Amino acid sequence: MAKIDVVMPQMGESIAEGTLSKWLKKVGESVKRDEPMFEISTDKVDAEIPAPQAGVLAEILVQEGQTVAVQTVVARLEADGTGAVTPPPRAEVPKPAETPKAPTPAAESPKPVAKPVPPPAPERPAAKAPSQAPEPAGLEERLRTKSTPLVRRIAAEHNIDLASVEGSGLAGRVTKSDLLSHLEAPHPAAPQEAKPRAAPGVDLSVGAGARLIPGPVVEPWESDRVEPWSRIRKLTADHMIMSRRVSAHVQSLIEIDYTRIAGLRSQWKGEFGERGVNLTYLAFIAAATARTLRRHPVLNSAVMGEATIYRGEINLGIAVAMDWGLIVPVIRRADELNLLGIARAINDLADRARSKKLSPDEVQKGTFTITNPGVFGTLVGLPVINQPQAGILAVGAIGKQPAVVTAPDGSDTIGIRTRGLLALSFDHRIVDGADADRFLADLRLALEQKPEELA
């Protein structure tokens, strides 16, 4: 029987490692080609990984909860020799001594591999000398010097040399949490308080060797249930704390009359349904937001050090709430889509986010985010900015309300209108209050007076 290597996939250009969160198959079970074998979590997305070929799961080399480098062999399948897709020489390398020479951690010896091959100790200091060697020689040095775009941006904003930060990631790579801990280091109380303030048995780590800012000591009582955070919950907590620290958050709210949209939605809902698309208020709001961002580019920008990047693309992130956390898939070039295209994209991305079918590219390069707490009946939310963006829009509950209606002759009456609130959180470092208010005014105009133009 031929052996087939199953590896940790490369889930995005800047992602160097992933956590194997769950095995969907057991040793000895058969698996079909492209059938999901295991789930992984990265700092971008949770996803199910399919089998490269049909066969029987012969070995599991990486256990649930372990974080390994991309291309690390996590399991092996047994299949007929005629169906093998992995060249046999990979599984026949007999010399462990050759492992350090391999260009990636995927190289292996005949022994089971539970972790990515660690860098030899003598080579570790080389990771701290990027200025002397501009071209990284191996994977360890590339990871150390490259890190992730978010880490490099935060380091640039605070004038921090990444080589001076002790990294806890793969091959000493500096993570976001490492950088936040480094920023806290100048305060003398921080290193002394880190250990005693952690309650017994409570893991405050965000990643390997990293920790959240210590909070008050909390101990579980006898009737309590303690549930450790999932990886996505840890990453969300880390990202939210970082966003609050980085951006000067300000919120503006505006009330929208959706009565005209409600009529169009009733009129067009059947037609959209025939095409397999559910037409929601969110689709109208997203379409209007994308087009309004064209005229207000500062809301579609990002901070880079002491400069502003005005994004050439309008890529809308749509926050999706799941049982295990929150994810923000992205609609690329949303301003180029009509209402049907936006509605279809929202339906598709939300469905695949909940079934863990998103690809890494579909959760990256967002330029502005929309979140919809109103779907749960929330009057309005004041959201935290999704870094490194400059703004995020929260959609409040939409419902019928009594309101003053002015007739064409100027007389006022009380009528029933469909209304709801929108809340904009923006980064006051680059977005002035007037900029935010003009954006909201134009968005209200598009939704109340010109919704037909979105079709």
- Name the CATH architecture of the largest domain: 2-Layer Sandwich
- The count of domains is 3
CATH top level of the largest domain?
Answer: Alpha Beta
- Number of strand elements: 19
CATH topology of the largest domain: Chloramphenicol Acetyltransferase
Please state the structural category. alpha+beta
Using only C-alpha atoms, the radius of gyration works out to 26 Å
Main sheet makeup: 7 strands, mixed
User: Could you say which overall geometry the principal axes of the C-alpha atoms support?
Assistant: globular
CATH homology-level superfamily of the largest domain = Chloramphenicol acetyltransferase-like domain
End-to-end separation: 57 Å
List SSEs in N-to-C order: EEEEEEEEHHHHHEHHEEEEEEHEEEEH
Given as residue ranges, the uncertain stretches (5+ residues, pLDDT < 50) are 81-137, 186-211
- Average pLDDT taken over every residue: 79
Proportion in β-strands? 15-25%
Q: Share of helix among residues?
A: 10-25%
Number of alpha- plus pi-helical segments: 9
Describe this structure in words.
With 455 residues, the protein is an alpha+beta fold. It folds into three domains: 100 residues, RNA polymerase II/Efflux pump adaptor protein, barrel-sandwich hybrid domain (OB fold (Dihydrolipoamide Acetyltransferase, E2P)), CATH 2.40.50; 92 residues, E3-binding domain (Dihydrolipoamide Transferase, Irregular); 207 residues, 2-Layer Sandwich (Chloramphenicol Acetyltransferase), CATH 3.30.559.10. Helices cover 24% and strands 23% of the residues. Strands 9, 12, 15, 16, 17, 18 and 19 form a seven-stranded mixed beta sheet that branches. A four-stranded antiparallel beta sheet has the order 1-8-6-3, with no helix packed on it. It has a four-stranded antiparallel beta sheet with strand order 5-4-2-7, with no helix packed on it. Strand 13 and strand 14 form a beta hairpin. Helix 7 crosses helix 8 and helix 7 packs across helix 9. The longest helix has 16 residues. The radius of gyration is 26 Å and the shape is globular. About 18% of the residues have low confidence.
